[in-house]
Amino acid sequence: MIKKLALLSLILLGFSCEKQNDAYEINGVIDSSLNNKVVSIHAVYGIPNKVIDTDTIKDGTFKFTGKVDAPEGFYMSVESLNGVIPIILENKNMSIEVYKDSLHASKVSGSRQNDFVTEYNEAHVLKRNFNTELRERYTNAQKLGDKSAMDAVKQSYDSLMVVATKNDIDFIKSHHDAIISGITLERLVKTNKVDEAEFNTLYENLSDVVKNSRAITNIKTTFTKVATPSAATSKPGAINVGNKAPNFSGFTPEGEAMTLSDIKAKVTVIDFWASWCRPCRVENPNVVKMYNKYNSKGLEIIGVSLDKASQKDRWIKAIADDKLTWPQVSNLEGWKEPIAVQYGVRSIPATVILDENGVIVAKNLRGQQLEDKVAELLQ
């Protein structure tokens, strides 16, 4: 009995004294044909593409050591190779097998957080492949000047993005303790795929580790900073679906003041765009087509430009070139545009759809989805 107790004590002592990693070590293997090439680790936040560490490949291997205060997303690049390797740095001993012909498919092991990244990537393989196919089809159609083919590709892309967003949200819900969930949620918020109310719902399900991650902290700070200059009394969440759209004011190209309340229609679309925004300009023909089809039935659009004062002539020219015949306003302050700040717009193009009572019924619809929603509301 005494020997058994002694043995048990040693086992327990071993568990209690097990050393916890206070730094990370990454050992990588790669095709030796890349010897003397440089592998770099880049930050995904702060200064874009900032390199935080490098190592030179020797005998088909490379190594990184360091320490992070908390698990965080980074990516690796390899000199002369296309693509990047997403990786979560955490204080663990990790290994990585690099596939030089497909960096994104490289395997990171020894880290639970990177297992989550692998799950996420595997769940999105079809989306990435289809997205690549769509880009190729659009480029070919553009070269041939085939507008109908280009429109078809854009509709397919819009549908793909809806499915991708749903898959992202489902992943976040089922992986509450994954840092990649926090990073994904940050991206959805920044691209206006998730509003504050939806963020709060997803946030409640996250583990404390993810709630305290840089990505989630950044989102919370962003929402806190979103002010409402021309509607200072608006309550938080005023731009959420189901709430009354806050009024705003801006100036037309002719310098006349105009407010949202000046627009009287069965359906109103607030369209955030800019003359310098290529995706906006590509989308404009779809908006023109929709406007010409439904304006007589009760649709009105008010465009809000994120151009700067120095770009006013470009703004006016873009309105004429793209045949935007609906009301246009701006305070010409770029990304500091008060209306955009008021509505929490962090990327463009962006849309907010209102019913005849000025209630927000949908946000950030484009292409066929936007037209279908307008048609539904006008029935």
TrEMBL record:
- Superkingdom of origin organism: Bacteria
Which GO annotations describe the biological process of this protein? cytochrome complex assembly
Q: Which Pfam families did the record assign?
A: AhpC-TSA, DUF4369
Q: Any idea where the Thioredoxin domain is?
A: 239-379
GO MF, one example: oxidoreductase activity
Entry GO CC: cell envelope
Please classify the protein's predominant subcellular localization into one broad category: other
PROSITE patterns per the record? PROKAR_LIPOPROTEIN (PS51257), THIOREDOXIN_2 (PS51352)
Q: Which CDD domains match?
A: TlpA_like_family (cd02966)
Q: Which InterPro entries match?
A: AhpC/TSA, DUF4369, Thioredoxin-like_sf, Thioredoxin_domain, Thioredoxin_ResA/DsbE_sf
What is its subcellular localisation? Cell envelope
Which of UniProt's keywords are assigned here? Cytochrome c-type biogenesis, Disulfide bond, Redox-active center
| Keyword flag Magnesium | no
PANTHER family from the entry?
A: THIOL:DISULFIDE INTERCHANGE PROTEIN DSBE
Name of the protein: Peroxiredoxin
